[in-house]
Design goal:
This protein folds into two domains: 237 residues, Alpha-Beta Barrel (TIM Barrel), CATH 3.20.20.70; 66 residues, no CATH class. With 347 residues, it is α/β, with parallel strands linked by helices. Strands 1, 2, 3, 4, 5, 6, 7, 8 and 9 form a nine-stranded parallel β-sheet that branches. The longest helix has 18 residues. It contains twelve helices and nine strands. The structure holds flavin mononucleotide. Flavin mononucleotide binds next to loops.
Length: 347
Amino acid sequence: MIVADSSSAAPAAPGFYAARLAHPGAVLAPMAGYSDAPMRQLAAEQGALWTVSEMISARGLVMGGDTEKLNLGRPYAGEQGRAVQLFGAELELLSEAVARAEAWFAPAAIDLNMGCPVPKIRGRGGACLLQTPEVAYELLHAMRAATALDVSAKIRLGWDTDRSVEVAQGLQAAGVSLITVHGRTSRQRYTGEADWDAIARVAASVNVPVVGSGDILSAETARQRQRESGVAAVMIGRGSVGNPWIFRALADGLEDAQPSAQVRARTALRHAELQTRFYDDDTGRLTLRPLRKVLPRYLPDYPDLHAELTQVVTVADVERVLSPLLGDGATQTPATPAAAEYAVSYP
Ligand SMILES: Cc1cc2nc3c(=O)[nH]c(=O)nc-3n(C[C@H](O)[C@H](O)[C@H](O)COP(=O)(O)O)c2cc1C
C-alpha cells in the first residue's frame, strides 16, 4: 500500500490567479451589461489572462430562484479562466452563493464586489463595504471557507477618501488570493482620472498580487501603468469594448494596431452570432438589443454606419449593415481560438 508522505510531497500547485499571472497579458474587467459570455469569449480568444463575469447578486442566487441557467453566471461551452463576481453583504447568503456558483457555473475563481457605487440590490454590498471593511473581512473569510477555489476582492480606493492600503492589508489578512483596485473612490463614480499612484501604494503594501484598473485605453498605456505602479497585471474594461485585440497586443508584446475594417466588421458580426447562440434566440430580437451600444465601438471610424447599427434586430440586420466591409466568407468563424493556449492547468 502506498502511503502519502507529506514530507516528500510535491509543492502545492499554484492557485488559479498565480498560474495565470505567470503569463503576460491583461484581465477583462467585470462590467454589468457588457462582460457577458460572448464578450468574455472574444476576450479569451485574444489572450486575456482571465475574465470576470458581471456581478451576480448573492441574494438572487440563493433566494431568488435563480438556477444554473442564469445567464449572468452560465459559462459558454468550453469556457475556462473566468472568475465569477458576487455582490452581497450577508455572510450566510454569500457562503451559500459561493457554493452554488461553484456547482453551477464552473468558475476558476470567485471575486467579491467591493466597488459598485450604486447598489441597486438589497443589502449594503459593493462599495458600501469600504465604509465597514471589518464586515468585508468576515465575508471573505466565510467565502474562503466555502470553496477551495481562489477567492479575491475588487475594491475602489475608498468610499469618499482613500483607505485602500488599510483595506487591502485587511483583505490580505482575511486570506484573499488577489486584490483588484479601481483607482477611484466610490464618490467619484467614473469622473476624474484613476489614481495610479494610489494603486501603486496598494501594490507595495501587500504580498498578494494586485491588479490595477482604471482608464486603460491602449496597450502602451497598460504597459506603462504596470511598469510604474508595480501591479501584477492590469484590468481593462471600457477600453476593450469593441476592441478585444487590446488583449492580444498585451499577451504577445505587440504594439497597438487596429485590425483592418474587414476584421473588425467580421468580429462585430461574430459577436452578434455568439450573442444569439448563447442566449438561444434565433431571431435575435431580444438579445441583440444590449449589443446595439457595442457594435459601433468596433468601427469608430465608420460613423455613417452607427445609426443603423444601433437599430439592429437580427443577425441578418448586422450582416446587411456591415456588408460593405465584410468581404467574401463573411460568416466564417475565425480559426484562432487562442483560448486553448491559455488553458494552463490549475486546481
Ligand atoms: C458599464 C460598467 C459596468 C461595470 N460593472 C462592474 C461590475 O459588475 N463589477 C465591478 O467590480 N466593476 C464594474 N465596473 C467597473 C470596472 O470593472 C472597472 O473597474 C472600471 O470601469 C474602470 O476601468 P476602465 O476604465 O478600464 O473601464 C463597471 C464599469 C462599467 C463602465
